[in-house]
Amino acid sequence: RLSVYKQQANLVAKKKEMVMKDKSQLEEARDTLAKELTMKEREYEQMKGHKFMKKDEFKNYAASLRDKSAKFKRLKAELSELRHEVAVLLRTEQILQTKDPTPAGLVETEAMLEK
């Protein structure tokens, strides 16, 4: 009568042992994959920089991008104004040269003599 229970207990023990072996093998595989992932992340960080940004780092980064964008737009507008002003001044100079009969060399000589 007890032999039936002993057989069942032995079968359950064998199944448990097999499952424990499978579990340990899977844990080893998980650990090796985790190590490999860590190594790959380190390689990536060395090549491309940090993989993820923290929330406050991202906010600082976004703020710096907004500042740079605003500065770029402001400087671009200023450059456009300067180019427009240069075009106007060149046209004015051209008009004045057509109206002034004195040769350009004479004006330069007079400027040197005034110094």
UniProtKB/TrEMBL annotation:
Record has Coiled coil as a keyword: yes
Keyword Coiled coil: yes
GO cellular component, one term: intraciliary transport particle B
InterPro entries, alphabetized: IFT81
Single GO molecular function: tubulin binding
Residue runs in coiled coils: 16-92
Superkingdom, taxonomy of origin: Eukaryota
GO biological-process terms attached to the record: cilium assembly; intraciliary transport
Record keywords, A-Z: Coiled coil
Name used for this protein in its record: Uncharacterized protein
Originating species: Alexandrium andersonii
